[in-house]
Amino acid sequence: MSETALMAMAGRFLSALRHCQVLQMRVHHADAEGMTLVLPWSAAIVGNPQTGAVHGGVLTTLMDTTCGMATLCVLPQFEVCPTLDLRIDYMHPAQPGKDIHGHAQCYRVTRDVIFTRGTAYQDDPAQPICQVVGTFMRLGQEARGGIRFGSGLKEGRA
C-alpha cells in the first residue's frame, strides 16, 4: 500500500475514534516502518496540576492507539485487531506545554496475533517518556463491523 493511501486510511480510522477526537490526536506519519501519532499538549491532559504532569491514562490511550494503528502498516487490508495485552514502562514525566509523539511498529505478524513495540517522546525519540510493547488479536477483515476503512466507504450494519 502506498504511503499516501496508508496515511488516508489511518486518518479515517483515527477520526472514527471519539476519544481520539476529544484528545485532538492526529496522524503525523505512516509507512511500512510504523505509525506516528501526535497528541497536542493541553491543560485537559494534565493529571497533576501541581507539577503539570500528563495523566498516565492519556499516555496509555496514545500508545494503545498508536500500537493498534501500526497494524495498518503491515496488513494488506484493514482488519479489526483489538488489544490483547499492553505493557507500558514509564521513564520520566512529559514536559508541560509540549506535544507528545507516539511511534509504534509491528515486529512480528502471525495468523492470529500481531506484536508491536513503541515509544512516546517529545523533542527527542532517544529520550522516551515511556516504552511500550503490545499484542493485538487478528479477527480478520470479515469482523470489521461493516466499516471499510481501506476504501473510504462506511456501510451500515444489517
UniProtKB/TrEMBL annotation:
It is an enzyme of class 3 (hydrolase). Residues 52-127 form the Thioesterase domain. Keywords: Hydrolase. Its EC number is 3.1.2.-. Pfam families: 4HBT. It comes from the Bacteria. One of its GO terms (molecular function) is hydrolase activity. This is PaaI family thioesterase. It comes from Pseudomonas machongensis.
